[in-house]
Design goal:
heterodimer, A: mainly alpha, ABC transporter involved in vitamin B12 uptake, BtuC, B: mainly alpha, about 75% helix
């Protein structure tokens, strides 16, 4: 059913119209269009520091969405990532407060993130347990564990050197934005041109066909979860270092915001299709919408409802589009 | 392979699983009784039954949904939405309370129907549909309530959540009736047998002219309806309405179902297994609480139990094959 997914990308290059109507272009247009619309209603929205805040405060969501997109492209899902980011941020901050070398505080979340996600990847790939069940269990282990260890206390008195997010490259580009852009480009290139990157699409498109053409779906799946853990570690680092305190609870529904970014970014939940450029653009769009609500006087309590409606609408549109394309292919 | 061939085998596996579970349950009961003399008292056990009802009402239709090979992670959010629907329509829209209750149950059924509709008609996978509606329903509850809680219900309203009938908590009686009803529906009706057929082989069920979509739609709608009932019980027990109510209920309900021997891949499972799974989870919570473990650590233990029980069930099944 999803075998049609693979030939899509070369075809997309061929037709100008398809390229113009791609999810990435639509998202870019939506980002600019929304900015213009809200800017006309309330010019303060377009102030440079507000736009910068939107990017800085949400770069970690875009980074986490890169790994999530890979997971979803293989036809799986992960709902433990929000809780994992909370745990990793707390571990990193606690180490910093305890006086560990800064490099250690930066590396620890990456290593633990890889270990936790790698374990989940092995359970999903080799023991055949659905990812939704494994990650639902892990979600509660991590969330329950974090609150019972920290008792809900915030971490304060972080050393100045810890704040990775304060560094500016060439004195102008803030680190979180640089990481977001760099990680997106690297991951996109890897998935587009490297054999192992292509294997992700092959596994998600048709695992049996992938196996027959020499790709091991199990290895690929574990690799994807390991990378997802790495990106979760980077995201946790950005989250931990953006403020002067680390809260023991991540924003509620963080995992769903990340999933929304991936799905709205064009990653098909049926597997095999999508790009991380799309998911990063979608993460920016979602952050922009959340910020815009404040400027057009809509209560921020509606944020989650809007997110839910957005993800549902995108998923339904994706399925309908596939059905139509499938019908077209038959003809 | 076909639905017909697998059905005589499936119950035998399930029965064996349930007997093992029941044995573990009895050992756990005795162990907890020895460890703490406050545990094996009638008061404590009845109180645990009271606390068990909210999850139990959700775990019953969750069994149906998982038997069909689906899943519903939006149930906790539906509880939140129904609680807000009840409180808001009564306090802010001026509905009489009985009407507000009916309205809230209707909202629950509609939410479940929406899930089922998207899953059966638009063919969106159940996982992604209910993840999306989880965000949507919880978001609606937050948006409608604007984070205000509703309090000050009249005294009679608390009868369901806090009252007793002949010494038995009111909601426990409702749960018992629901258990019997769901058990009979699964075992003795064509609706129930169709659930198994869909889970064993949906294509075969379709070719056998079974009403696959209608039955799945009914299962998800039931799931929403009992989530609404669960919200009613919950609001009545804790005397307040907040938009974050029912958060994490999906974990407890799914854990109870899976622990009770229902295959996460669909096709097998029983209501009685779910009931045992439910009781075990409640005892685990109670036992941990009595030994001084905080609620958050309990969530952690349930997560471990969920993963462990799925791993054990799948390795047992692999050995049998």
């Amino acid at each position: 059913m999803s075998a049609i997914a693979l030939p899509r990308s070369p075809a997309a290059r061929g037709s100008l119209w398809r390229r113009v109507s791609s999810q990435e272009t639509l998202l870019a247009v939506a980002i600019v269009g929304l900015a213009v619309f809200v800017g006309l209603t309330n010019p303060r929205f377009l102030a440079a520091n507000n736009l910068a805040d939107i990017l800085l405060g949400n770069a970690y969501i875009a980074v986490a969405a890169i790994g999530m997109s890979m997971v979803i492209i293989t036809g799986n899902i992960d709902i433990s990532v929000g809780a994992l980011i909370g745990v990793l941020a707390t571990v990193s901050g606690s180490l910093a407060v305890a006086g560990a070398p800064i490099v250690v505080t930066w590396l620890a979340p990456l290593v633990i993130g890889v270990a936790v996600m790698g374990l989940q990847g092995v359970i999903v790939a080799y023991l055949g347990i659905p990812a939704i069940v494994v990650t639902l269990g892990m979600l509660s282990i991590l969330r329950g564990g974090l609150i019972s260890v920290t008792g809900g206390k915030w971490i304060t008195d972080l050393p100045d050197a810890f704040h990775l997010a304060d560094i500016e490259i060439f004195g102008v580009i803030p680190m979180p934005v640089a990481i977001m852009v760099g990680a997106t480009i690297l991951a996109a290139a890897w998935m587009r041109w490297w054999p192992q990157g292509r294997a992700i699409y092959a596994t998600g498109g048709n695992a049996e066909a992938a196996r027959l053409s020499g790709v091991s779906p199990r290895h690929t799946l574990v690799l994807v979860f390991v990378l997802h853990g790495f990106f979760a570690g980077v995201a946790a680092l950005l989250f931990a270092t953006q403020l002067r305190v680390i809260q023991s609870t991540t924003p509620s529904g963080l995992e769903f915001t990340i999933i929304t970014a991936s799905v709205v970014g064009g990653v098909s939940i049926l597997g095999g299709v999508g790009t991380v450029v799309g998911s990063t653009l979608a993460a920016i769009l979602i952050a922009e919408i959340t910020s815009a609500l404040v400027f057009i006087n809509v209560s921020p309590f509606w944020t989650h409802a809007l997110q839910g409606a957005l993800i549902l609408a995108t998923v339904i549109a994706d399925i309908e589009r596939r059905r139509r394309r499938l019908a077209g292919d038959v003809r | 392979m076909s639905a017909v061939a697998s059905s005589p085998r499936a119950p035998r596996i399930a029965v064996r699983h349930e007997i093992i579970l029941a044995a573990i349950l009895i050992v756990a009961l005795i162990g907890l009784g020895f460890a703490n003399d406050r545990f094996l008292t009638l008061d404590n056990l009845l109180n645990q039954g009271r606390l068990m009802t909210e999850i139990g009402l959700i775990a019953l239709p969750m069994t149906f949904v998982i038997i069909t090979g689906g899943i519903d992670v939006s149930v906790g959010a539906i509880v939140g939405l129904c609680a807000i629907a009840l409180g808001y329509s009564w306090k802010n829209l001026g509905f009489p309370l009985p009407l507000a209750i009916v309205f809230s149950l209707g909202v629950g059924a509609a939410a479940g129907f929406a899930n089922g509709f998207v899953i059966t008609r638009i063919k969106v996978p159940a996982i992604i549909t209910t993840i999306a509606t989880l965000t949507l329903f919880r978001g609606l509850a937050e948006g409608i309530s604007q984070a205000h809680s509703v309090r000050g219900y009249p005294e009679w309203f608390y009868f369901l959540g806090q009252g007793d009938v002949f010494g038995v908590p009111t909601q426990l009686l409702i749960l018992l009736i629901a258990i019997v009803a769901f058990g009979v529906a699964l075992d003795r009706t064509s609706f129930g047998r169709t659930l198994y057929a869909i889970g064993s082989n949906e294509t075969a069920a379709r070719f056998s002219a079974l009403p696959v979509d209608r039955v799945k739609l009914a299962a998800y709608t039931l799931s929403g309806l009992t989530s609404g009932l669960s919200a009613f019980v919950l609001v009545s027990r804790v005397t307040t309405t907040r938009s974050d109510m029912g958060m994490g209920y999906e974990l407890d309900a799914i854990a109870a179902v899976v622990l009770g021997g229902t295959s996460i891949f669909g096709g097998s499972g029983t209501i009685w297994g779910t009931v045992i799974g439910l009781v075990m989870i409640q005892l685990l919570k109670n036992g941990l609480a009595l030994t001084g473990v905080k609620g958050d650590a309990t969530i952690m233990v349930i997560g471990i139990v969920l993963i462990a029980s799925v791993l054990i069930a799948s390795s047992l099944q692999r050995r049998r094959e």
